[in-house]
Structure formats: structure tokens, C-alpha cells
Write a structure and sequence with these properties.
The structure holds 2 protein chains of 2 kinds. By secondary structure, chain A is mainly beta. Helix content of chain A is 4%, strand content 42%. Chain B contains 13 helices and 11 strands. Chain B has a single domain (6-126, 224-395), classed as Thiolase/Chalcone synthase (Peroxisomal Thiolase, Chain A, domain 1), CATH 3.40.47.10. In chain B, helix 6 (177-191) crosses helix 10. Chain B has helices spanning 28-42, 71-78, 96-106, 121-124, 158-173, 177-191, 205-210, 238-241, 274-283, 302-311, 320-324, 343-347, 353-363, and strands at 10-17, 52-55, 84-86, 112-120, 213-215, 218-219, 228-237, 249-255, 294-297, 377-384, 387-395. Chain B is an alpha/beta fold. Chain B is globular, with a radius of gyration of 19 Å. Chain B starts with 9 loop residues before the first strand and ends with a strand. Classes of the chains: A mainly beta, B alpha/beta. At the A-B interface, strand 4, strand 5 and strand 6 of A face helix 5 and strand 5 of B. The complex binds zinc ion.
Chain lengths: 132, 396
């Protein structure tokens, strides 16, 4: 499945390549001791520039999801699940991802999930699967 | 909070719209000229009176079917001599051209601003089915500030995001598909009275429930219909508008706020940006939701119409599903008639300015068979996710 991959840069590479070490990295602020996403050179809350990637648990829950049935281009296989995940490390720490490795119609809001990586070229896509 | 309410110096003085084709045989520029010249004439003006042009999103110099004609092309083609012009995607949603144009007038740069929007997705989709996809279209890797967090996960259409807001609303408030169906069914019923609407045959609840699932819980009939069309309005300084042939339709209040990140997922997952937009708008007027005689609310996806109903205070937050259930409250003779030309769901995806055109048509009593009972105030709201704006219109 050909996916459009992100262009890596000094701000985002720890997120997109953390999977090489098996870790999900989220940007963390030393000023207010909170995570934020997406990664940037400054904390949007306190404006501290003392920020950087830090490994998180990779565990979380589904805040919302959709089962996509439409085949938008010849490269995508349907159905697939797009979800908004809230990580267990901090309330409100969210990212968009795919839920993989389970029947799509069993996905539910609040379902516990954990990260699993899929390498494509030099990017480790952080997908999520149902927590056993 | 605000010491000057600039929009009250500005009124809509004329409107125009091309044919709405699916597809149209006319060029994008021909559609644009048809709309623009009709609006200028409707305002009782001539080409030489127009001293400003605004458009959202404008042309990105790529002729994209989403917005193939921008201010530069129209100024050149119509031989306009302007003091100010502007387009561009980064603004508070499909009504950004109206808001920008009003600011240009209120700031003293212009007296009559032509605001327009052209879209040719129906004809483009004959050869390119992805022509209307909202997502990043750059070749190779995605370096977009915004899209790189979505496209790698095959978020390939805006519907995936709208579907997740809908799913969350269903989860938090118990909203049901049978309730949401009423947005599409109401628009279809209204379209039956609009000769320009794309789809005019009746839609039943069974039709809706049986329509193909695109991205759960949203179905094909939750998506607006592509068309080729152009819509234009003339904004005039209020004193100049009062000398024109039409009763001025004042911009009583605008909402353009964004107090959350420019993101699909780092925002309120049911209200999105609509809350702060509506709060800003109502803070700039003494009018109340109960003063409105109609509401033209963005229905690029049906869920957004319901969310705007809640945000604008036309029903309580979270009660959208129950409010629209059965369709009576939002029907032509209901508490608040919505999308009286069929909206974008059945009328055609004119993408923003079509709502303004219909609001003015109703306020001026020109709607023919679909005319509502006379009223003076209407609200137009457009957008979804972090992208939204609203305008409260009052006929003098
Ligand atoms: Zn901070």
C-alpha cells in the first residue's frame, strides 16, 4: 500500500523515526512539564523553547474513529480505520493514526490501544492495535 | 471587548450567480463573468464602480477545480481598476472573502468590493476523480505543516475527519443516523423548489439509510454534490449601498475567531471551531438566535450543519440530533428554516458564497416558489474543523 510519507526535518524526525528503537516519541516541554503534539521548536502553552522529543508509553485509548470504505485511489486497500488516539501519558495528548490488526467493525471509542510500528523507507509509521 | 464593529459600515448591495451545472459546458471564467456582471448590475453599479476584489480561497496559480479563478484573473479579464484585492486559503473558512472585503471597505480602502467564488469540480471530475480531494497534493514527500500528520495514515478526504467528529457526537450525545438523515432530507425537500438545484427528486429515510457508507458513520448522502458554478456579491460602504436599487443587507456581525490550534485533532472533537466563531458573532450584536428567520449553514458534510445549529444557539449544545429529528424544526415552516435552496447537499457545492446568495435572495423576497415568510435577519455560517466563519445579515 503506497502511502504518502512525511518529509523529515529536525522537529519531526524523532516522531517519525522513533519506531527504529521501538519507541513512540512525543515532544515534551521542560518549562511546563507537559507534552504537546505536533512537535515544534516552541511550546504553544508557555512558549518555552526548552522542548524536545521524549519516549512515551505508547499506550492510550480511542477518542474517535471512522471505518473508511471509499477507495480513494488504486493504492489503498479498504476498509481501513482512521482514529484519534489519546495517549495515557497525559490527558489531551492526541494524535491521528490507524487501528490495525483487528476486524474493523470491532473498533470502539474508549478501546485501549498500544502502538505498533510499520517501517516504510526511513519512516516508522506509529499505528495502534487493540491492547491485549 | 471590541471598541469598533467595522462590519456595521458595510452592506451587500447586489448578488449574482451563474448556472449551476453538473457539469456545465461553460468555462470557469465564463461562469465567473456571469456571476460577477449579474451582481454588479444588481447593485445598480457599473464595472468602473468596483474598486476592490476578494475571493476565498483564490487561485493558487494552478487552476485547481476547487477554485480555478482568483482575483488576479478576474481583475485582468474584466479590466477592473482596483485599490485593493486579495485571495488565499488561510482565513476563517469559505466566508473569508466576505469578511476580508468588508474590512477593506471599513478601512477606507474601497467603496464597492466584488466578492466571488468559482468552482468547477463537476467537470474536472469527469477526468480526475480526486479533483475535489481536500488533502495535500504535492508530489513526493509531504512537508505540509498541517497534512503531514494525516496523509501518512491515508486520511485522503475531509470526510474521514468529519466522520470522526460525527462519531464522537454520536458517542457523547446519543445522536443517531436517523436523526442526521434529516439534514440531507430537508435539503432535498428544499431543492425541489429550486429550479437551479442539482438533485430535486424526493429523498426518503430509506433512501438515506440505504445509501453507500463512505466513512462511518457518514454515507454518500451526507456528502455535498459537485457542480460547476460561480457566485458573486457586491459589498458596498453602507452610505453608498443606501443609494442603490436594493434595500441594503447589512453585515450586522461577523464571526472569524480561531482560539484553537490549526489542526483536525487538537481541537474540540464535536464543536470544532464553531463555538468561538459563534460566540464572537453574537458578542457583536444585540440580536439573538430567536430573531433569525432563516439560517444557511454549511453542509459540505451533513454533520457540520447540525454542529452549526448547536454552535449558533439555534438548539442547545449536544441536542442537535434531537432538534432535527423528524425534520420539523428545520423545515421551511419550522422553528428555523435551513438551506432553503437545497444547500450544497442537493443544490450544489458552490462552497460558501452560495449560502450568502440564498440568504440575500430570501431577505429581498426574490425566492419565488421557495420564498419563506418575510424576515429581516438571517445567519450564514461555513466551514468545519479549524476552518470556520459566520456572518449575521440584516435587511434594512
Ligand atoms: Zn510549556
Amino acid at each position: 500500500m503506497a502511502r504518502k510519507l512525511p518529509a523529515l526535518n529536525p522537529d519531526n524526525s524523532a516522531f517519525w523515526q522513533g519506531g527504529a528503537e521501538g519507541t513512540l516519541n512525543m515532544h515534551h516541554c521542560q518549562g511546563c512539564q507537559r507534552y504537546f503534539h505536533p512537535p515544534a521548536p516552541i511550546c504553544p502553552r508557555c512558549l518555552s523553547q526548552d522542548v524536545g522529543p521524549r519516549p512515551v508509553s505508547g499506550r492510550g485509548k480511542v477518542l474517535s474513529y471512522t471505518i473508511n470504505h471509499q477507495r480513494w485511489n488504486a493504492d489503498v486497500e479498504v476498509p481501513y480505520v482512521v482514529a484519534i488516539i489519546e495517549l495515557a501519558d497525559q490527558p489531551g495528548l492526541r494524535l491521528v493514526s490507524n487501528i490495525v490488526g483487528m476486524p474493523v467493525d470491532e473498533v470502539r471509542i474508549d478501546m485501549p490501544v498500544r502502538v505498533t510500528f510499520s517501517q516504510v523507507e526511513d519512516v516508522w509509521l506509529p499505528f495502534f492495535e487493540r491492547e491485549a | 471587548m471590541f471598541d469598533r464593529l467595522f462590519e456595521k459600515d458595510v452592506a451587500i448591495s447586489g448578488i449574482g450567480q451563474s448556472e449551476v451545472g453538473r457539469p456545465s459546458g461553460l468555462s470557469a471564467m465564463q461562469l465567473t463573468l456571469d456571476a460577477a456582471l449579474e451582481a454588479i448590475a444588481d447593485a445598480g453599479l457599473s464595472r468602473d464602480d468596483i474598486d476592490g476584489v476578494a475571493c476565498w480561497p483564490g487561485d493558487n496559480n494552478n487552476g485547481d477545480a476547487f477554485s480555478p479563478v482568483g482575483p488576479n484573473a478576474l481583475i485582468s479579464t474584466l479590466g477592473l481598476k482596483v485599490n485593493w484585492f486579495g485571495g488565499g486559503y488561510e482565513g476563517p473558512g469559505p466566508l473569508a472573502g466576505v469578511i476580508n472585503g468588508a474590512m477593506a471597505i471599513a478601512s477606507g480602502l474601497c467603496k464597492h468590493v466584488l466578492v466571488f467564488r468559482t468552482i468547477t469540480e463537476a467537470s474536472r471530475r469527469l477526468t480526475d476523480k480526486t479533483a475535489s480531494a481536500l488533502t495535500n497534493k504535492t508530489i513526493g514527500r509531504d512537508s505540509s505543516f498541517f497534512w503531514q500528520w494525516y496523509t501518512p495514515f491515508n486520511v485522503l478526504s475531509g470526510i474521514n475527519l468529519m466522520a470522526m467528529y460525527a462519531q464522537r457526537h454520536f458517542h457523547e450525545y446519543g445522536t443517531r443516523p436517523e436523526q442526521l438523515a434529516q439534514i440531507a432530507m430537508t435539503c432535498r425537500a428544499n431543492a425541489a423548489l429550486n429550479p437551479k438545484a442539482v438533485y430535486r427528486t424526493p429523498m426518503s429515510l430509506d433512501d438515506y439509510m440505504g445509501s453507500r457508507m463512505i466513512s462511518t458513520p457518514l454515507r454518500m448522502l451526507d456528502c455535498d454534490v459537485h457542480c460547476d458554478a460561480s457566485t458573486a456579491i457586491v459589498l458596498s460602504r453602507i452610505d453608498a449601498a443606501r443609494g442603490g436599487p436594493n434595500p441594503p443587507i447589512r453585515l450586522e456581525a461577523i464571526g472569524a475567531a480561531l482560539h484553537q490550534p490549526w489542526s483536525w485533532d487538537q481541537i474540540d472533537l464535536t464543536a470544532m471551531v464553531t463555538g468561538e466563531v459563534a460566540r464572537m458573532m453574537w458578542s457583536r450584536t444585540d440580536l439573538k438566535p430567536s430573531d433569525l428567520g432563516s439560517a444557511q449553514l454549511y453542509d459540505g458534510f451533513s454533520i457540520l450543519t447540525m454542529i452549526w445549529l448547536e454552535a449558533l444557539g439555534l438548539c442547545p449544545l449536544g441536542e442537535g440530533g434531537r432538534f432535527i429529528e423528524g425534520g420539523h424544526n428545520i423545515a421551511r415552516d419550522g422553528v428555523i428554516p435551513i438551506n432553503t435552496n437545497g444547500g450544497q447537499l442537493s443544490g450544489g457545492r458552490t462552497h460558501g458564497l452560495g449560502y450568502v446568495h440564498e440568504a440575500c435572495t430570501q431577505l429581498w423576497g426574490r425566492a419565488g416558489e421557495r420564498q419563506l415568510k418575510a424576515h429581516r435577519a438571517s445567519v450564514v455560517a461555513a466551514g468545519g474543523g479549524p476552518l470556520g466563519g459566520s456572518v449575521l445579515l440584516v435587511r434594512e
